[in-house]
């Protein structure tokens, strides 16, 4: 099986920094980054009251569905999506083919500003994920789970 | 595909419940949700039709505790079972770490079981996975119904590779956690091998 996404401390700090800056620069309420499989990678802004796990899963589902629609229409994918609400709006953008950058914003910002800032942040994030992929592919990087024992696993299920 | 986050010391895995329409996939998740400590679970999301049939997926995030200092989180998904929702079934299998095949034990649903199992194999292959290599368990659900056929017969038809299998009655919880524990163990064991 393919090995999954691995996030290291250094790259996580870079990603969190980019998300924080995007939140400020775009006057956004919340910015979050998920992988296309629905795992939350990072969040920034007023995310405390949000169910970010569910948001991540639904975003991935939505992006996957739009990807399916794109293919039916002969497109590779729809890299950007915008959903307008009465009070809050949502902008999703696929970064580096693998992760989705989501911005939630209200009347304090505008779609134009969000798009502009997302483009810049997306380019920066793509570089970080490229470096991350290379790091992960480097021989000698070992998973912390290489050493887990059957007892460790059993212990998880002890009542 | 699992997600290991060294920064937050978390490991996230994706488990998909697959099977024919009305075999009890959503009921499995509902039972797990009802019986799990509130601290260990997130919100259960069901994208269903008005008649409560799963339209896109059900989703339940579940924490199982720590392993080697890493919090383990399992994201449980179901697929829509009805034949015509094949496009969304394919999407949900993306990035899967482990599969539970929920079979309906009733004699009249045997053909639907076989069709769904074949559909699972094909859809996994489209995502680059081989059912014989993915962590995988089988659940024989609806054991309480009068037309349920013998487990031996179900085994012969649906489990020739002899993967872990569990008789179940999902609404009352029989076999539900045994199934979940088994697939979670297989997923973690696979992770260990990958390391």
Automatic annotation (TrEMBL), chain A:
InterPro entries: LAMTOR2-like (IPR037587), Roadblock/LAMTOR2_dom (IPR004942). One of its GO terms (biological process) is positive regulation of TOR signaling. It comes from Anaeromyxobacter diazotrophicus. SUPFAM superfamilies: Roadblock/LC7 domain. This is Dynein regulation protein LC7. GO terms for molecular function: guanyl-nucleotide exchange factor activity; molecular adaptor activity. It comes from the Bacteria. Residues 15-105 form the Roadblock/LAMTOR2 domain.
UniProtKB/TrEMBL annotation, chain B:
GO terms for molecular function: GTP binding; GTPase activity. Residues 100-127 form a coiled coil. InterPro entries: Gliding_Motility_GTPase, P-loop_NTPase, Small_GTPase_ARF/SAR. Keywords: Coiled coil, GTP-binding, Nucleotide-binding. Pfam families: Arf. This is Cell polarity determinant GTPase MglA. It comes from Anaeromyxobacter diazotrophicus. The lineage of its organism: Bacteria, Pseudomonadati, Myxococcota, Myxococcia, Myxococcales.
